[in-house]
Specification:
Layout lengths: L11 E7 L7 E2 H8 L5 H9 L3 E3 L2 E2 L5 E2 L4 E7 L16 E4 L3 E6 L16 H9 L7 E2 L8 E7 L2 H12 L4 E9 L6 E5 L1 E4 L7 E4 L16 E9 L3 E8 L6 H8 L22 H13 L5 E9 L6 E5 L4 H15 L5
Parallel strand pairs: 10-17
Antiparallel strand pairs: 1-6, 2-5, 3-4, 3-6, 7-8, 8-10, 9-10, 11-16, 11-17, 12-15, 13-14, 15-16, 17-18
Helix pairs in contact: 1-2, 2-4
């Protein structure tokens, strides 16, 4: 399992402190610096400023004086690495960059972050080399799968990372994906809601579990996930859809679309690399096999990314054109759907 195929929420540390009965009066920021290992004062103060710290379930200020039995909860992005990251030279398609953020148009096949099985050759390794001695650091606030292409947002300093992490946590980041899926739809749009958790048969993939009413979130099977979709183009046996993420779970679009009977085209892990719709004629079978060869990975692209700039508050909006493999794949299906004699 590639390390980047983790839930976006797993990029955050969740701390929960109950202040000791004998604790003397102390500023909240100083208390958190004392309780959280290797954290800078800037990161603590930024987290408090943007609402990542709550005392007794109410957002607090840095100068709040902690009292015995106070319940303090903290959301912080990306725990410290347990291994040394090595800079590696590579070609990185940077879409936008300033002192605080960097937007990358990630190609399919590139792992985002080092982990088991992928300790080198990742985007983070490349960004470390790209930043050089500038003082910037590649700090992640979300991830996309190795074989998914498209836009990825990276913070360059702790303050920006904390602000952006809060936007992701609050689901105010705009993320729209294009996906080619098997089958046609009766409707033009819809919403998929279902908890996502590891499959008991195969830990590499995710399954959808029902959300149990009245059961606390921490006791649910899987984690709450919502995907909105609408049809962009119909080709008969396959359909191009736009998916809008409300949550950021591992393999969310891939698992959700399979759950409603529409696996992503060429998605080996979720059954999309078999011929699921259409005739059994050899010419059609050869056509689909050729399509698999054109796009030998899940047909999924992170096309639109929008967020509030962490320093200026300005709304930032980016769009990424479909990469060559998906363009070629769609063109083949367009020709087939309008003139099956071309097969």
């Amino acid at each position: 399992m590639e390390d980047e195929e983790r839930d976006d929420q797993q990029l955050y540390e969740h701390h929960r402190f109950v202040v000791d009965r004998g604790q003397e009066s102390m500023r909240l920021d100083k208390y958190l610096q004392m309780r959280i290992e290797s954290i800078s004062r800037n990161k603590v103060q930024t987290a408090i400023k943007v609402g990542c710290v709550r005392v007794n379930d109410v957002e607090a200020k840095s100068n709040y004086k902690v009292k015995p039995n106070d319940l303090i909860t903290v959301l912080l992005p990306e725990p410290p690495h347990e291994f040394e990251l090595v800079p590696e030279e590579m070609d990185i398609p940077v879409v936008y960059e300033d002192d605080d953020v960097l937007v990358v148009d990630k190609p399919a096949g590139l792992v985002v972050h080092p982990g088991v099985g992928n300790w080198t050759g990742t985007l983070v390794n490349g960004l470390l080399y790209y930043f050089g001695d500038s003082g910037a650091r590649p700090l992640l606030v979300h991830r996309i799968d190795k074989d998914t292409s498209g836009l990825l947002l990276v913070a360059k300093n702790e303050e920006a990372q904390v602000v952006l992490a809060k936007q992701f946590f609050d689901h105010t980041i705009e993320r729209k994906y294009n996906a080619l899926v098997w089958g046609d739809f009766d409707e033009d749009e819809g919403t998929i809601t279902g908890n996502l958790g590891r499959s008991p048969q195969d830990r590499r993939i995710m399954c959808v579990y029902p959300h149990e009413k009245g059961v606390p979130e921490e006791e649910q099977r899987g984690k709450h996930a919502v995907t909105h979709w609408h049809v962009l183009e119909r080709f008969g046996y396959v359909t191009l859809v736009e998916c809008v993420l409300e949550t950021g779970r591992t393999h969310q679009i891939r698992a959700h679309m399979k759950h409603i009977g529409h696996p992503l085209f060429s998605d080996t892990s979720y059954g999309g690399s078999a011929i699921l719709k259409g005739t059994t004629f050899s010419r059609y079978r050869q056509f689909v096999e050729n399509c698999f060869a054109v796009c030998p990975r899940q047909a999924l692209h992170a096309r639109i990314l929008g967020f509030e700039h962490p320093r200026t508050g300005q709304h930032m909006h980016f769009e990424s054109p479909l990469p060559d493999d998906l363009q070629a794949l769609l063109e083949r299906w367009r020709k087939y759907s309008t003139n099956k004699d071309l097969v």
